[in-house]
Inverse folding.
């Protein structure tokens, strides 16, 4: 397998976690990094042994050695950053939520298709061992037909209107920052053939949803989903079926443990599958694999599913009259 040369765009929190995980991937090389500030780029390159560093994103995308760029900028910037990469012939892995709305992503997908390039949202949850084991349990009919999924993602950050999560200008809000996980989780089990979305939100002073709920109602099942910046929660997830239930451990989107209970509430099976590194290594391996095999649309996080999630988000925000400045 060819070694894939990665470029990282931006040097914030998640870029650091991603770069750490790359050390656990044999056929990945953190080749270059770019920041809007050359000193930050150099410090990042020094910390993670990147060969090249750039003081602008424009320089990064022009480096002909790079196979794929990981975009780790704030939400409102993704649309332009993805286009910048694609238009310079670079494959893209872009952080969640991939763009502010479905229209922006449709345009990006169209460019990727025209240029025959790889494009994927970095929905790292879907590559993790426990998430995949739970899907196997469902296929093995361990809990019967799924009737209810309960999945919430709450945090209690310090209120700071300047922080990207509270900023309308930077594409903040609980739905895009956190809700993308409950939505991706539930639809991975129940699909997109729901008949109704029931949604509510509390819009705060900075004009973003500080908390929101978006229940998906199917013919024979429902998913109770919500997210917010107003509760300290451990965020486990539950899948309840006709024969039993599954609990994914706290922080379900990075759970390393899960349990099956029967109808008497007895634990009948449990798994503990620790990460090799910090959990981002699995998506990196997948992207490397796709690139080595010439696959342009991930079979695990296909652009079609990402678009469907964005459509749900568009629908919810329409109900709440919430528009981002950058749309
Ligand atoms: N997958 C996950 O587990 C996970 C976790 C956290 C966040 N995320 C996602 O990752 C993205 C970045 O989140 P983060 O927590 O890493 O954010 P962050 O710490 O604020 O870092 C964002 C970086 O983007 C760059 N940037 C470009 N334009 C900017 C602007 N106008 N304002 C501020 N920064 C700007 C900056 O890097 P330079 O100064 O170096 O250019 C900054 O350090 C978001 O889309 C978020 O949803 C994913």
């Amino acid at each position: 397998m060819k070694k894939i040369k990665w470029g990282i765009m931006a040097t914030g929190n998640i870029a650091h976690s991603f770069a750490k995980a790359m050390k656990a991937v044999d056929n990945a090389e953190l080749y270059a990094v770019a920041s809007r500030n050359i000193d930050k780029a150099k410090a990042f390159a020094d910390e993670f042994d990147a060969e090249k560093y750039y003081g602008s994103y424009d320089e990064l995308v022009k480096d002909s050695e790079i196979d794929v760029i990981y975009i780790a900028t704030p939400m409102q910037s993704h649309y332009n950053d993805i286009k910048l990469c694609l238009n310079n012939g670079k494959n893209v892995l872009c952080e969640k939520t991939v763009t502010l709305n479905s229209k922006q992503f449709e345009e990006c997908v169209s460019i990727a298709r025209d240029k025959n390039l790889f494009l994927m949202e970095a929905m790292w949850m879907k590559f993790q061992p426990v998430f995949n084991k739970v899907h196997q349990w469902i296929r093995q009919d361990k809990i019967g037909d799924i009737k209810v999924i309960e999945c919430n993602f709450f945090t209690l950050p310090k209120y700071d209107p300047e922080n990207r999560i509270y900023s309308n200008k930077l594409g903040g809000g609980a739905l895009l920052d956190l809700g993308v996980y409950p939505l991706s989780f539930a639809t991975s089990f129940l699909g997109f053939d729901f008949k109704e979305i029931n949604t509510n939100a509390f819009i705060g002073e900075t004009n973003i949803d500080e908390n929101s709920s978006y229940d998906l109602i199917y013919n024979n099942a429902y998913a109770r989903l919500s997210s917010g910046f107003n509760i300290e929660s451990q965020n486990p997830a539950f899948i309840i079926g006709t024969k039993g239930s599954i609990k994914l451990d706290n922080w379900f989107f990075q759970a390393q443990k899960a349990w099956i209970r029967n109808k008497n509430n007895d634990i009948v099976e449990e798994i503990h599958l620790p990460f090799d590194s910090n959990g981002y290594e699995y998506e990196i391996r997948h992207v490397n694999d796709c690139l080595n095999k010439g696959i342009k649309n991930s079979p695990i996080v296909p652009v079609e599913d990402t678009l469907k999630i964005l459509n749900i988000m568009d629908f919810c925000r329409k109900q709440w009259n919430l528009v981002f400045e950058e749309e």
Q: What stands out?
A: Residues 10-15, 35-37, 40, 72-75, 77, 95-96, 122, 124, 164, 177 surround NAP (CB under 6 Å).
